[in-house]
Amino acid sequence: MQSPRATFLGSAASPDQFPKNGPPEVAFLGRSNVGKSSLLNRLAGVKGLARVSSEPGRTRLVNFFRVGEDLCLSDLPGYGYARVPEAMRRGWERLVESYLEGREALALCVFLVDARHDPSSGDETLSGYLEHRRLPYLLVATKADKLGRGELSQRLGQLREGIGRAAIEVAAVSSKTGAGVDGLWRAIRAAVKSHRERRHVAR
Ligand code: GTP
Ligand code: MG
After folding, report:
1. Among candidates 106, 187, 181, 108, which has minimal Cα distance to 142?
2. Atom 29 of ligand 1, nearest CA residue
3. Which protein residue has the closest C-alpha to ligand 1 atom 32?
4. Looking at the domain assignment, is residue 1 inside a domain?
């Protein structure tokens, strides 16, 4: 059964299908299979809210969720999945880009990378894009349960100096064990609060 606190708002295959801008929105971005949908489910505390799959490229639409009164989460299609036709891949890229460019409610991006692997060229592109457009983001290394403590802290150091250099924070999580999830919630809440304050000042 779905928790009353987290609900699915709808899916969009094109920008005209995005729901109306509502409360601050936090977007989950990263390569295919990195664990975006799994992390979103963990954060919302609802198994099966966003669809998880061992088959990469599962999330093909932008999916929107409402969590509590004052927050929305969006699950974006992953990049870097080779086995899709070129035209389809470009369609997803356009969808993600128009979301990032035009979504007024967007307060924060949660940019996921696999803790086990060096950043891909798609990861480098996304980090350059976020930095260039000055979109606030948290860089999150996923699947931390697959690494030992030393390896993980080494990886976090590399990420802080590399694709996470413009990030508000760089952290590790495991959607499997729940490690790092409370800390991530705190970072999300803090970033959303400061987004609200900035918007308030800007008015
Ligand atoms: P797309 O929708 O294809 O872009 O993928 P996604 O980024 O949403 O990944 P998803 O959450 O569907 O997870 C992909 C696979 O990784 C699934 O088999 C998950 O069970 C697994 N996975 C996700 N997070 C973790 C984690 O923290 N630890 C481990 N061990 N496996 C994970
Ligand atoms: Mg997904």
Report:
1. 181
2. 143
3. 143
4. no
Tokens in use for 69? 């009164």
DSSP string for residues in 34-52: SSHHHHHHHHHT-TTSS--
**pTM exceeds 0.90, yes or no:** yes
- The ligand minimizing its distance to the Cα of 41 is 1
Cα(124)–Cα(128) distance, integer angstroms: 6
Q: How many domains does the chain have?
A: 1
Which residue among 42, 53, 65, 152 is best mutated to probe the pocket of ligand 1, counting the most ligand atoms within 8 A of its Cβ?
53
pLDDT digits (tens, 9 = 90+) for 45-95: 888 888 877 776 666 789 999 998 889 999 998 888 766 777 777 777 888
CATH code assigned at 167: 3.40.50.300
Residue 72 resides in a domain: yes
| β pairing state of 62-67 and 6-12 | antiparallel
List all residues whose CB is within 6 A of at least one atom of ligand 1.
Answer: 32-38, 52-54, 56-59, 78, 142-143, 145-146, 174-176
